[in-house]
Amino acid sequence: MSGAEKKSGRELGEEWWQTAIIEMSPGIIRLRGYEIQDLIGRASFPAVVWLMLRGELPSEDQASLLGIALGAAVDHGPQAPSIAIARMAATCGVGINSVMASAINVLGDVHGGAGEQALSFYGDIAVAIDGGATLDGAVSARLDRFFVGEKDYVPGLGHRFHPIDPRAPRLLELTRAFAARGVVSGRFADIAEAIEADVARRKGRKIPLNIDGATAVIYGELGFPPPLTRGLFVLSRSVGILAHAWEQSQQSERNKGPLPREWLWAYTGTPPRPFPGEDDAGE
């Protein structure tokens, strides 16, 4: 008889959703081993995010830097598809949870995924440096492969609205300040700035770091793997989505579409034509 067959039905049931994250029974809630009442009032929200994802409490400085990154990307206005969708959904009579879900569901590779892509890119360069390459050599080699085989926007650089994304320089400045105190190493900041410089040399013009590239620097410095970078962006942008959903829900408009109703889309299809046989209908 196998070990699984020896287990009782209750044991099998308890193992069905086994988790190292939370322990809960009547009167008890523990997150990663910490009593919830001990965390309340002592651990900040960024610290609890860290604890839930990483299993241990961060230092105050680590939690502070994480909070800085989360706070920087909360909103970018109704021109961002996720925010526009939130506002449109709010005019359709659905609950605020449905509004938020509708918006969050469009945060994918194109809108919301650039931070993950940027950190993966940085990670490739970090691995090459660990293998003995120089910073400039590793950056150049990775960009060579990118422009030959991938031929797309370099992740983390450029912004369709901002010649210089006002969030990025401040985030890099703060990362450098935390690195100077030994909280982080600064290696991902070095990598991002070296990428920016190499691309400028190749293109003949500077394409500055954007919010995705800058927050990827911080998440990389703090040791988060690339897939979690996307999740952290979703967590951050959910704040803006909630704010816009609530604001729109307090207004009287109903069924608000992407354009004012006086403006209709440009039709590019077949010109008006008769239904087959229509000319013969009177004969």
UniProtKB/TrEMBL annotation:
InterPro entries xrefs: Citrate_synth-like_lrg_a-sub (IPR016142), Citrate_synth-like_sm_a-sub (IPR016143), Citrate_synthase (IPR002020), Citrate_synthase_sf (IPR036969)
Domain of life of the native organism: Bacteria
Record flagged with keyword Transferase: yes
One of the GO biological process terms: carbohydrate metabolic process
Family matches, as Pfam families: Citrate_synt
Keywords for this protein: Lyase, Transferase
UniProt family annotation: Belongs to the citrate synthase family.
Protein name as catalogued: citrate synthase (unknown stereospecificity)
Lineage, broadest ranks: Bacteria, Pseudomonadati, Pseudomonadota, Alphaproteobacteria, Hyphomicrobiales
